[in-house]
Amino acid sequence: PVIQSVDKRALELESAALPPREGAPVTQLVASGIASPDIQIRIVDPDLRAICASSRVGEIWVSGPNVGQGYWNLPELTADVFQASLGDGRRYLRTGDLGFMWRDQLFVVGRSKDLLIIDGRNHHPQDIEQTIERCHRAFRGLGGAAFALQSDGPEALAVVHECWQGVDTDEAIRAIRQSVSNEHEVSVSRVTLVKIGKVPRTSSGKVQRSQCRDLLLACELPIVAEWHA
């Protein structure tokens, strides 16, 4: 695999994949590979509908014979997602993925709809979720969701995670708060531990973060333990 080291601060604050400065925190990213000759990949600013400068992270747009024609009986959504234009005569699929190109290699860093912006910094929930799963035996092999919650003030980080029975939940919650703070330099404002199998997933096993947030706010999760800042 092609692995590229980038400046973690620049990625979080500027959405830029820059070479790491001396002494700066580093993030290593793995490439998805090079597109075949009949596929065009563009990194696009979705607000400006313009190609991003090199090293900038943007939405990944794809054009080629492997792209579907659109959604069934949804012409407006089809036009927005499957028929995006950059004025070059091509129609692009807006993948919803965020990434950048380096030496013709595509690097994917996350999903635009899942991106967490907390205290002016970009965080990808899968990175935080992976940190939590590794931080304590209570979470090994189980599922969790990290997402933003907003009440009266700015957005804050909330975590819902399944946990094994018979563990010290106070200790496990402290492990979440400390590990996320140490590795991502962000404070967790709410931790909710739930029974195994209660974090919602798709039929293919992917965590449904937005549904998990809705269930939490509706008080419909089977809570084992909870902590609020």
Chain-wise SSE layout:
Blueprint: E1 3-7, H1 8-14, E2 26-33, E3 40-45, E4 50-51, E5 58-63, H2 75-81, E6 93-102, E7 105-111, E8 116-118, E9 121-123, H3 125-135, E10 144-149, E11 156-162, H4 169-184, E12 188-194, H5 209-217, E13 223-228
Helix pairs in contact: 3-4
Largest sheet: 7 strands, antiparallel
Mean pLDDT across all amino acids: 92
Order of helices and strands: EHEEEEHEEEEHEEHEHE
- Into which percent range does the helicity of residues fall? 10-25%
Rounded Rg: 19 Å
Give a count of the beta strands, DSSP E runs of length 2 or more: 13
| Termini separation | 41 Å
Could you say which overall geometry the principal axes of the C-alpha atoms support?
globular
Number of distinct helices: 5
Q: How would you classify the helix and strand content by structural class?
A: alpha+beta
Which residue ranges are poorly predicted, with pLDDT under 50 across at least 5 consecutive positions? none
Strand content: 25-35%
Order of adjacent strands in the largest pleated sheet: 1-2-7-6-5-3-4
